[in-house]
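Q: I'm building a small set of examples for a reading group on sequence design. Run inverse folding on the following structure and report the sequence directly after it, with nothing in between.
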């Protein structure tokens, strides 16, 4: 990839709040993240950390008037999403970026057969005759390893299993050849085996087509199976960022460590959410210092007051000599980062 390639998604210092009775919920607090063409990037964090709001903002899917961007910018394929006209954003949806949600039933029309829905999407984006669109839909379903695509085309959504519906969603998302696929916990409701199959399909087809993926999850095991790079979010902030290998083998933020410690050794997928004691802060009253302060074993008084707003290059996180990464590739928002662990060549955490 050329060094001056335009990022597919470029979020800079984005702060966003929801006005609520008597105040505002600060959902995002200076979020910066970037997805380059063809990259598979994860966002991981507990429930309420701002993952979905980030994803929805990328396609301006939050209800207009229901939120306020107070700072920062968001560009999709080099274009400013926050100030673009509604008709432009509508053109970008599906084509520049397509979205897959956790529950496909909400995205699929229950009263229409799968074939009609897929053909409808295809025909809306590229002028295609109905017959050609149905044929293309069938081949997309076959790509998703659906054994009898003709039968699935005739089915209504309720007639399919959860895993099958999610495959249909993935096929639909790829159908307009988007530059970026944003997947918000798409496999969370699936059992472990089906989840692994869907992740493999996603990865395979993204690589084959050069599609970038922004994959949102609360599960570090899923990150390890799928992503090249990962952003760890907490309380509306990116607290750590780096290559998946670095972050999983050598977490520097105590929060990241906490997410990883909940996993059984060997990073089994679908494992229960890491149980870090305490709760995410009430973002109607965001803390002035580090938001992880009261759950962190390493916090001191300064952490309570000193803001850690911008993730900064992890000083001393120093790239391992074996890693072709510069220090800027690794970012961290913490006053007391964990000591660098000795790289464990077995691929397991030290
Ligand atoms: N429409 C809304 N009105 C008020 N608060 C909201 C709204 N949507 C999300 N939030 C709040 O924004 C924060 C981030 O939410 P979200 O991005 O959905 O978290 P995640 O996807 O990481 O679980 C949470 O505190 C959530 O309660
Ligand atoms: Mg969410």
């Amino acid at each position: 990839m050329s060094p001056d390639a335009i990022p597919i998604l470029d979020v800079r210092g984005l702060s966003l709040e929801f006005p609520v009775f008597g105040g505002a919920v600060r959902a995002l607090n200076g979020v910066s993240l970037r997805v380059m063409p063809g990259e598979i990037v994860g966002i991981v964090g507990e429930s309420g950390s701002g993952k979905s709001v980030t994803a929805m903002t990328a396609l301006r899917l939050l209800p207009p008037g229901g939120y306020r961007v107070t700072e920062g910018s968001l560009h999709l394929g080099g274009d400013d999403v926050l100030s673009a006209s509604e008709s432009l954003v509508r053109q970008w949806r599906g084509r520049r970026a397509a979205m897959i949600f956790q529950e496909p039933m909400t995205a699929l029309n229950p009263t229409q057969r799968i074939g009609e829905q897929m053909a409808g999407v295809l025909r809306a984006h590229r002028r295609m005759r109905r017959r050609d669109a149905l044929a293309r839909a069938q081949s997309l379903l076959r790509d998703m390893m659906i054994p009898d695509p003709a039968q699935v085309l005739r089915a209504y959504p309720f007639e399919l299993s959860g895993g099958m519906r999610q495959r249909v969603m993935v096929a639909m998302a790829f159908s307009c050849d988007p530059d970026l696929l944003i997947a918000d916990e798409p496999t969370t409701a699936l059992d472990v085996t089906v989840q692994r199959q869907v992740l493999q399909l996603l990865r395979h087809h993204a690589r084959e087509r050069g599609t970038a993926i922004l994959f949102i999850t609360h599960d570090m095991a899923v990150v390890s199976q799928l992503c090249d790079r990962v952003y760890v979010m907490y309380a509306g902030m990116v607290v750590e960022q780096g290559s998946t290998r670095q972050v999983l083998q050598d977490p520097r933020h105590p929060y990241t460590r906490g997410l990883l410690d909940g996993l059984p050794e060997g990073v089994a997928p679908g494992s229960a959410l890491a149980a870090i004691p305490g709760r995410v802060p009430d973002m109607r009253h965001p803390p002035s210092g580090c938001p992880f302060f009261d759950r962190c074993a390493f916090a001191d008084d300064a952490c309570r007051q000193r803001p850690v707003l911008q993730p900064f290059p992890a000083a001393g996180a120093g790239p391992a000599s074996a890693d072709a990464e510069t220090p800027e590739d690794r970012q961290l928002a913490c006053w007391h980062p964990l000591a660098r662990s000795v790289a464990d060549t077995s691929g397991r955490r030290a």
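The pocket of magnesium ion (ligand 2) is lined by residues 51-52, 184 (CB under 6 Å).
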